[in-house]
Amino acid sequence: MGNLLIYSLIYIIILCPISINSDAVSDSKTIAKVEKKLSDYVLTILEHFKQKDPVGLPGAPIPDPMDIPPMTHSFSVGRMNMKNVKLYGLKKFRIDHMLVDLAAMQVEVRINIKKLHVFGNYTLSTWLSSSNGPFTVNLTNVFVKGIARLEVERGGHLEAQEMNMDINFKDISMNFERLGFLASVFQGVMNSVGTFVFDSIKPFLLTEVNTNVRKDVNKEVQKIPQKFPNSISPLDQLMAEARRKVRDMGYDPYKVDDYNQTVGLCTIFMTHTWITGLSSFHRVGNITVELQNSTFYINMEVGTQRLEGTSHWEVSLIGMLSRAGKIKFTVEYITVLVVVEQNVDVRKGPILDDIQIELGNIQVRFDGAGTVDYLIEFGVNILPNLLRYQIMDALESPIKSRIQETLDRVNMEQVIHQNLPKLDEQQAKGFQGFL
């Protein structure tokens, strides 16, 4: 499961922002060449995010400059034609915020481009005269928002869907050379030209990005041979595989550490406590990866179905008098919320940001006949709370410490370097058995 997560993270880095831009190949020399590009790109990305202010993404399939089709703008007293129009600056973007919903296979992203420049040539024809020359339109503080989704198509393969995008700007300025006296005569009219240029470019830009990115993403995801059922999401299918691994590793049923607590003159012992059903875990809500302020926040919450267990109890009064017995109990559910943060500069290690464990209602019943009043009172008022403490102590501290110890030992940069050959091996196999 650990290798799967590492492969998946690396593959997401490659898949989302770029296309390998290579057709399917069969000969070993070409495959080796493609593999080398794949590994080299990951290394390039790692170096890119080591910068204090990373701008853009190396190799992103964004034309810069982008050629814009000829445009025509009609006034009440004339017409302006624009041609040889080019848009500069698309690659110089910064990711302000990104939210990846793994359950919905959806990505929401907000990027900022400090400046965009439009260059071209115009011809202005009016009833008075005509003029022509170069023009420039400058857009400042451009914001782009987009939502992209992957869905399982009929054949069971993943497919990128239509993207929902929008683009806006804060300020605009322009300069049309050689207007002559028309610059002052039509000043009010000319003030609307800049907005017209943007409004004309916007649908073309959104269509081009939508079409090209969808094409590139689908080109890559189609290489994944894994088929997914339409009834459950790919993430839930991976959770089902994880449940099987938990059972194979012997964690269901799970033996809880022995526990004792002193209440007044009594000492209560809880021993041989077993819980069955931990492998029934499933995701609770969405599992998300959020990028904010150059830091990834991985938010994951899983919960179990109803658990059943047994335990031996013993009550000792000043070490002299004692009563003992066996109980069966049920736990309505257990949920675990984990938030881990990882800086985009992978030289900095991951950090456990938060962990919360919640136990549902616990019900206890005695195994066997002896249901005298004091046992009933003991079982109803004391044992559920003791079991809660015992289970929480058995789960919360070990989970926290083990997660943090694991994170402290992780050198993310080294882990990625070590797994690049395995990623290349998977690519050479066409990602057979990748998931």
Structure summarized in a few sentences:
The protein has helices at residues 2-15, 28-48, 182-185, 187-190, 193-221, 234-248, 373-381, 383-409, 412-428, and strands at 66-68, 71-74, 78-88, 93-101, 106-126, 130-152, 158-160, 164-176, 254-256, 259-263, 266-276, 282-283, 288-292, 295-303, 307-317, 321-331, 334-343, 351-359, 362-366. It has 435 residues and is an alpha+beta fold. The protein folds into 2 domains: 66-214, Bactericidal permeability-increasing protein, domain 1 (Super Roll); 234-428, Super Roll (Bactericidal permeability-increasing protein, domain 1), CATH 3.15.10.
Describe this structure in words.
This protein is α+β, with helices and mostly antiparallel strands. It folds into two domains: 66-214, Bactericidal permeability-increasing protein, domain 1 (Super Roll); 234-428, Bactericidal permeability-increasing protein, domain 1 (Super Roll), CATH 3.15.10.50. Helix content is 32%, strand content 39%. It is built from nine helices and 19 strands. It has helices spanning 2-15, 28-48, 182-185, 187-190, 193-221, 234-248, 373-381, 383-409, 412-428; strands at residues 66-68, 71-74, 78-88, 93-101, 106-126, 130-152, 158-160, 164-176, 254-256, 259-263, 266-276, 282-283, 288-292, 295-303, 307-317, 321-331, 334-343, 351-359, 362-366. Strands 1, 2, 3, 4, 5, 6, 7, 8, 12, 13, 14, 17 and 18 form a 13-stranded antiparallel sheet that branches. Helix 1 (2-15) crosses helix 9 and helix 2 packs antiparallel against helix 9 (412-428).
